[in-house]
Amino acid sequence: MQLIDGKAVSAAVKERIRAEIEREGFDIGLAVIIVGNDPASRVYVNNKKKACEVCGIRSYEYALPEETTLEQLLELIDTLNSSKNVNGILCQLPLPKHIDEQKVIAAISPLKDVDAFSAVNVGHIMIGDYTFLPCTPAGVMELIHSTGTDVSGKQCVVIGRSNIVGKPMAMLLLHENGTVTVCHSRTKDLAEVCRRADILVSAVGKADFVTADMVKDGAIVIDVGMNRNAEGKLCGDVKFDEVAPKCSHITPVPGGVGPMTIAMLMQNTLMAKRLQVENG
Ligand code: NAP
Questions:
Q1: What's the structural domain count of the chain?
Q2: Of 55, 150, 218, 280, which sits with the fewest C-beta atoms within 10 Å of its C-beta?
Q3: Which structural domain range is residue 236 located in?
């Protein structure tokens, strides 16, 4: 069994981005909006700001109070959409319940939508013409590539069908000619379906969900889950100690997919700058 080191792969990606930005002499800005006081969101936003520093991207943080209205948020996005200093805009999810997330996502200019959540960018991902990469699934693909595995013809099983992870994950595996099965809470005989996987990606959000009986010998297991266990420690979906000995490769949590998501966000921010330069 080999551990896939997400920290090392993400450091290499960020280093490549930093070198490209330096070579092209780009001045790039990413606006990060956070609404309310969710501690997990605060950690993610801080990590994104740190990654910006590493890559040589300016980050502009907009920390808004919990009671911010949809109208106020849309007004800010409107200003950022037309700002020359801001090349990418991300609004940290989840938003407080009184704000319609879809309206916020739709308001971000598709040329600055570095999370690739808007309908336009999701459409590009479906077609396989990547304007912006879906960050978490693209990070997973980089980790799979780092093992030297060719996805073509492999049985790929994705557990989870969210718009942010499961569905775009399935698309990226399909674009690389994997034979893809997407599982969800209504899937029958889940363990049996998962046991077919050469590549198993879990994006469920439940600790200890993937057990050894669900994994084929020699499979690659990618754990997207970010959960807290009974002791409050960060953990994934996979029961690591019993699954790891069966795998050819496996990602740890933390230190697997998480750092890759942020590296792909940096990649998209560079891409946004290029697009905006091309579009005048
Ligand atoms: P989500 O929107 O809650 O989706 C969870 C998916 O799991 C749903 O499709 C759900 O099925 C499925 N599911 C739930 N219970 C199941 C069961 N018993 N059997 C089979 N499928 C089941 O979550 P998400 O946003 O995709 O995130 C998933 C996990 O990834 C979370 O832990 C999240 O924190 C983590 N995450 C990590 C990163 C990262 O950078 N590492 C990024 C994003 C998310 P239904 O559709 O039928 O309800």
A1: 2
A2: 280
A3: 135-258
